[in-house]
Amino acid sequence: MPGNLLNGEFTLGGDGTLALLQITDTHLMAQPGGRLLNVDADASLDAVLAVARERQSVPDAILVTGDISGDASANAYGRLADKLADFEAPSFWLPGNHDGCGEANIDQVFFTRFLLSPHWLIVMLNSQVDNEVGGHLAAIELDALARAVDIANGTARHLLVALHHPLWPLGCAWLDPQRVANAEAFATEIHRCRKARVVLSGHVHQASDTSIDGVRYLTTPSTCVQFAPGAEDFKVDTCGPGYRWLSLHPNGHIETGVERVTDQVFPVDLDSGGYL
Ligand SMILES: [Fe+2]
After folding, report:
1. Residue 119 C-alpha to ligand 1 middle, in angstroms?
2. Looking at the domain assignment, is residue 4 inside a domain?
3. Residues 185-217, buried b or exposed e (16+ Cβ, 10 A)?
4. 185 domain-assigned
5. Ligand 1: distance of its center to the CA of 219 in Å?
6. Domain around 188
7. Is the residue at 156 inside a domain?
8. Tens digit of pLDDT for each residue in 136-158?
């Protein structure tokens, strides 16, 4: 994974509340209809996006927080771009442990480092480590976070950080070791930010919402298979696939929630002993 995958900046539309959708862990395979633990990743993503179109107004941006492809195939990235094109909102992607986001696989226009709105700054970080399931923030990523904090402080903006891996344990013994290994370095930087701070992650295929030392940490269901909260060992969950919406207000107030598909069932292989 090139260290400079995430580059440049983009100015988001709108001048009031910033509306975002988070889509994560789509796990699309090379062939349409490819499955993860028996769940058709295309069908479940299509159902999630249909729910989002029905229940949300057009967002200012869609954030896609990694494990976009389950097999790092170019076809998977192309299909996600096609599926999201219907939204009439720009989408911004970052890699997860399953991804291979080199130029041969994907249009690099999706990998933007900083997203600017009048009251909020979004920074996209790459926590992927080659050939590892767990996350780590390389020096270039911590430098980008430090730059984001400096911009936020210098322009009186609030800060949203998006990255694939969570920073802190969620209470799933089998998943918790996969969190960002150097989370303390992340915390040192983000605590310098003087305005509102929120961190969006994927990877854990479950929703969580925790505030630690004044920073709000959110995780979000996969658009495919769900993992059971509080599980000691690998365990899938039977709840539906979903997404997260956020309304980020000019004063730093954060409204957010998770929506799931409720009118279709995607039978998951409950007997599977693991997942990589
Ligand atoms: Fe992941």
Report:
1. 30
2. no
3. bbbebbeebebbbbbbbbbbbbbbeeeeeebbb
4. yes
5. 12
6. 10-260
7. yes
8. 999 999 999 999 999 999 999 99
